[in-house]
Design brief:
Pfam families: BPD_transp_1. It is a multi-pass membrane protein. It comes from Rhizobium deserti. This is ABC transporter permease. With 260 residues, this protein is mostly helical. It has a single domain, classed as MetI-like (MetI-like fold, Orthogonal Bundle), CATH 1.10.3720.10. Helix content is 75%, strand content 0%. The chain is built from 10 helices and no strands. The longest helix has 33 residues. The chain starts with a helix and ends with a helix.
């Protein structure tokens, strides 16, 4: 069964499958799949880029939602902490945030181990470090979008939930969050496209994304312009597919509004 599934996934591969994007090129071209070209390597880079962006999105949204809740809390300390968080991570360049997470966490773990007499070099996973760094940056921006959406929802919505006997958590889930998604979706769509491009930073810590794979191909083949142009096309295709998909989601989210 495992062999059948492997053959099925190989056949459905959108890049190097029988009808894949890079399979359309002849065996003697630079983008051909197999040993003759760089199609396999670049296809793997595209998969890593998409996987990283998709893994970062829910984490960043969850953190951003909590930061937005803290920013509108009646507790001054929570509001202050949320303000400090968003100020720091919106002010730092994404590349520096990535370095801090990737190298800083390693140093922290090694320091903790050293206090227990364990002298061992620790290296964290590049995919995990990239996901954490990008999620932190994404959450700092998404929290502001979500906070604006929260403020656009009338306080009467909460009072109506209380009048119906709903707990505040039920009011949030059944009344507020559906409206929140509809209001915040355009801003979150822009942040997703930015996140998709920001995944290119992880190439500096060795993760095999689109930029790293095309960069290796460019250095080895001496065809820098060609491969970086391919990278540009791939990012543009991903952005257009994302815009199409998110446009459909936005129309679906506003379907009740259109009926009125």
């Amino acid at each position: 069964m495992s062999g059948f599934l492997a053959a099925l996934f190989s056949a459905l591969d959108p890049f190097c499958g029988p009808v894949g994007l890079f399979s359309l090129f002849d065996g003697d071209t630079l983008l051909a799949c197999g040993a003759a070209g760089w199609g396999d390597e670049i296809a793997f880079g595209v998969k890593v880029t998409i996987s990283l962006a998709l893994a970062t999105l829910p984490v960043g949204l969850a953190i951003g939602f909590l930061i937005a809740l803290a920013a509108q809390s009646q507790d001054k300390l929570l509001r202050l902490a949320a303000g400090i968080y968003t100020t720091i991570f919106r002010g730092l360049p994404e590349l520096l945030t990535l370095f801090i997470v990737y190298y800083g966490v390693q140093i922290l773990i090694q320091s903790v181990l050293a206090t227990f007499g364990v002298e061992e070099r620790v290296e964290i996973n590049a995919f995990f470090a990239g996901m954490v760094a990008l999620a932190v940056v994404f959450s700092s921006y998404s929290s502001e979008v979500l906070l604006s959406a929260f403020r656009a929802i009338p306080r009467g919505q909460y009072e109506a939930g209380d009048a119906l006997g709903l707990r505040r958590g039920h009011t949030m889930r059944l009344v507020v969050v559906p409206q929140l998604i509809r209001i915040a979706l355009p801003g979150l769509t822009n942040l997703w496209l930015i996140l998709l491009k920001d995944t290119s930073y992880v190439s500096v810590i060795g993760l095999a994304d689109i930029v790293r794979q095309t960069g290796i191909a460019a250095r080895v083949s001496k065809e820098a312009f060609f491969f970086y142009f391919v990278a540009c096309l791939l990012y543009l295709v991903l952005a257009m597919l994302s815009s199409f998909g998110l446009g459909f989601v936005e129309r679906w989210a506003k379907r009740s509004e259109a009926r009125r």
